[in-house]
From TrEMBL:
It comes from the Bacteria. This is Exodeoxyribonuclease. The active site is at Y108, D147 (proton donor/acceptor), H244 (proton acceptor). It comes from Fundidesulfovibrio magnetotacticus. It is an enzyme of class 3 (hydrolase). Residues 5-244 form the Endonuclease/exonuclease/phosphatase domain. The record marks N149 as: Transition state stabilizer. Keywords: Hydrolase, Magnesium, Manganese, Metal-binding.
DNA sequence: CGTAATACG
């Protein structure tokens, strides 16, 4: 089973820059998307295509903001939107597809760079998400992918020193990823690659991408019950169209 | 610099 995650930074924009060609060639069973920026009611513009069915969670509080979704060719048992905690509903940040073998969660975690209020919201979202994942995990294993908006270690961004006070590499944000992994969620990419220089996001400014001045902030984590099933995890850094690139996971479900 | 609406990342 092949899974993908991609922060597309506007589905309308990437649709004109090869998104559906990428999906068709991806061999993906489920592709989770973040920052779709589709408004409520406009989901029909991005319907079934090439054997894939879509599901979207739009932001209901800001036009053209946030939003997550998925294209899948394997039908889920159930579909849910957003976290149960009412403080963290409405921005279109979580899509949950339930499959027989696991819960598939795709998430766009808040960006904390706009100010203290948004950093507080991000940290609160992290805690509420962990509680929700732990609750779901009581029934079956978890696969979670998406834009976590935090680089975990010094290996996960080009310039760790100069970003120690930047949201996305703050000690408290990194400490939450420590806590998350301590609960038994495995960073799948790191099962296969321990070196630095592997990134999933590059600033549009300063020719950051051509210079590979990037951050690894898009991840696949699995709860450790699934760790023996992880066959492959990778970063598709050659795929353009967004300031993020896709990441992939292959599971051997036997 | 870029998306999509004039804010946000």
């Amino acid at each position: 089973m092949i899974l993908h995650s991609w922060n597309v930074n506007g589905l309308r924009a990437v649709a004109g820059k090869g998104f559906f060609e990428w999906l068709s060639a991806s061999d993906s069973d489920v592709a989770g998307l973040q920052e779709t920026k589709i408004q409520p009611g406009h989901e029909a513009d991005f319907g079934e295509v090439q054997g894939y069915r879509p599901s979207f969670v739009s932001c209901t509080v800001k036009k053209g903001y946030s939003g997550v979704g998925a294209y899948y060719r394997r039908e889920p048992l159930a579909v849910n939107a957003e976290l149960p905690d009412p403080r963290f509903r409405g921005e279109g940040r979580l899509l949950h597809l339930e499959y027989p073998e696991f819960h598939f969660l795709t998430v766009y975690f808040p960006n904390g760079q706009r100010g203290q209020d948004r950093l507080d919201y991000k940290m609160g979202y992290y805690e509420a998400f962990l509680a929700h994942a732990q609750e779901l995990r009581r029934t079956k294993p978890i696969v979670v992918c998406g834009d976590f908006n935090t680089a975990h270690t010094e290996l996960d961004l080009k310039n760790p020193k100069s970003n120690e006070k930047t949201s996305g590499f703050l000690p408290e944000e990194r400490a939450w990823l420590d806590r998350f992994t301590a609960h038994g969620y495995v960073d799948c990419f790191r099962l296969f690659e321990q070196g630095g220089g592997h990134y999933t996001w590059w600033d549009y400014r300063f020719q950051a991408r051509s210079r590979n001045v990037g951050w690894r902030i898009d991840y696949f984590y699995v709860s450790d019950e699934l760790r023996p099933r992880v066959k492959r995890a990778w970063i598709e850094s050659q795929v353009t169209g967004s300031d993020h690139c896709p990441v992939g996971l292959e599971l051997d479900l036997g």
